[in-house]
Amino acid sequence: MAVTSAVVTSAAYIIIGSWDPYGPMLTNAALRRGLCPPTATVYNASAVTSHPLSHFRGTVRWQNPPVYRPLVDLSTMEERHLIITYRFDRAAIQELCIQLEPDLMSAIRHPTGIPPQVQVLSVLHFFASGSFQTTVAMASGMSQPMFSNVLSRVLSALLKHMRSYIVFSQVEDLPTMKGDFYALGHIPNIIGAIEGTHVALPPPPHRSQQVYRNRKSYNSMNVQMVCLADQYVSHVNAMFPGSVHDAYILRNSSIPYVIGQLQRQCVWLLGDSGYPNLSWLLTPVRNPRTRAEELYNEAHGRTRRVIERTFGLLKVRFRCLHMTGGSLFYSPKKVCQIIVACCMLHNLALRRQVPFLQEDGPDGSVVAAVEPVDSDEDEPEEEDMQNRDSVIQQYFQ
């Protein structure tokens, strides 16, 4: 007999993996098929074992039916656990699921598909923990390859709604924004603080990987953000690699155009000394010579500190962006998508006033949140000092 091996795929069927001239006699279904092909063919396992020729030399390996892990269930979790694990309360998660459900429903057409709610929870867990995909997938009740597909699907669905989550200053909101910033440091007409921060990623596998190495000698994306006085992210640009200067990113972003549309409203942004002082961007005085300039620098620092607190809150809420979570092992394009998605969710948490609960570190202490900001200060720029000098003379003399 030509049979050399047989592999059982479930409790009911067996695969005969070579030419078997007696195979068509084993079941009625096989008889209807005609002669057994030289490729693997499925037969009834009970018929094989009861057939008089079933004592053939070969290997029969019985396998148990597949076991599926239970999927994570939102309804069974406590509110505190939700906030610690997923960074959102039940109501916020349900709102997010309803918004993304039309784009995620296609994933459940397959019999083993993942419901939209589970997809959203698994991705929120990944953002919040910064863990490897395998760990997050096991906690959510799915395989790692399946979670990889879910991550791409949820990111795509989220980014479709970016303009409803990250909105730059509207004219009708300017008086409130100016008042909130003035309360921080008594500098008038400020509508945002701008700064760059780095998010680590592994060396991209191509020749241009050196452009991703930043001033601190690790690979990253240099992310430009503008925030409001309440730490709401009003602008994010995550497209530039780590070696690119902050001032270059500013020149090639949409900020100059957007601020230009608001110039009649007399508005300014605050930036550190890595940026040039422009007609709409106030930076600190590098070498203050008068008491008024010193007072201005102190007020500037108090006001601009809000962007550093925003970076700290964003990265500790979503540990996948924090250095302690390691690098994001994805392509630069996908890292950019993850950064923007986290900024969107950060704004959602602020809008819904979700309390932030930190997990304790291994020694019982709270894990540090804020990373030092590395400012770019070595690129000379043409500067417009008129507005800054006017502010110093009018408010700090």
UniProtKB/TrEMBL annotation:
Named cofactor requirement(s): a divalent metal cation
Biased composition (Acidic residues): 373-384
Places the protein is found: Cytoplasm; Nucleus
Gene Ontology MF: a single term: metal ion binding
Gene Ontology terms: cellular component: cytoplasm; nucleus
Region (Disordered): 361-397
Main location per the UniProt record: cytoplasm
Described purpose of this protein according to its UniProt entry: Transposase-derived protein that may have nuclease activity. Does not have transposase activity.
Protein family membership: Belongs to the HARBI1 family.
Name listed for the protein in its UniProt record: Putative nuclease HARBI1
Source organism of the structure: Pleurodeles waltl
